[in-house]
Specification:
about 325 residues; 2 domains; 18 strands; about 20% helix; about 40% strand; globular
Length: about 325
Amino acid sequence: MNIKTVEMHTNGDPVRLVTGGCPEIKGKDVLEKMKFFKNNLDHIRRLLILEPRGHVDMYGAVLVEPDHPEAHIAAFFIHSSGYGTMCGHATIAIARYAVDHGFVSDVQEPETAVNVQCPCGLVRAYVEYKNGKTGSSRIHTVPAFVFATDFEIEVVGYGKLKVDISYGGAFYAYVSADVFGLDMRTSPVRHIIAAAGALNRALVKQVKVEHPDNDDLSFICGTVMSDGKDVYDDGPTVNVMICGDSQVSRSPCGSGTTGRIALLYHKGLLTVDQPREFQNLIGCNFIGKVVRPTTCGKFDAAIVELKGRGYYAGSANFTVEEDDPLKDGFLID
């Protein structure tokens, strides 16, 4: 086995693009291909994402042939907990990669349009292009909507809490850090992880979400914890996504930020075309805004724009020796 990858990062969040070496990935669309990979090729996810080649917070994207007539490139997403239907920071990087590696024939200045097909749908991206060089990417997301506000949930160790639930390509619970007695700028990250992990375990047991278009999208991916600065005049706001018990997004989280923008718009705290800066724990940011209102099934929704930049970090060929006792990867929690 020889798996080829291009290594990138967006705001410090890793993106391991799987570009070659996989067996045939079957399926009539990207979502079916992701399910086929999960059922038949999950050892490749473990090989690439888990230790010793990866780590608990590694993210990846498997590039596949698109089936959407407008798509230039397609991908589904892998991480240490499993699979993702949308990953904003990875899509920002994929869009730049697509322009640089010939997936787009109509390259234009000052921006080149790239359509990225994800399991959740078609994401339209616009990549800065000048003098033969690419830069930042703007992505216009699939419809983002609020599923529930002030949803009560019992969390072991913290009692009964109220959370909001929103969809930005994946479902997340949204909560302010001060609910747990934490501060996003000063509290140790391990405390943030512990609180969000407890909430995630409660979500799995107590919450059932429903996507109006596809039941395969009807699951909560994790928790987005913020500094609670929801009002526009508060300036930059910090949020971080925690998936599973301990997986932490290094970027502000593209799909998580998308859902939060939809939530702020739903609450009347953002208007159309009003930009907001969303920071991660190390001070890097996404700029996001509502592009236009729309609908998704019975839900009022919004098309959200996020701007960030994917950077190249290298390339790799990953191999396996058959007598390696750790060839399937491992994690130490």
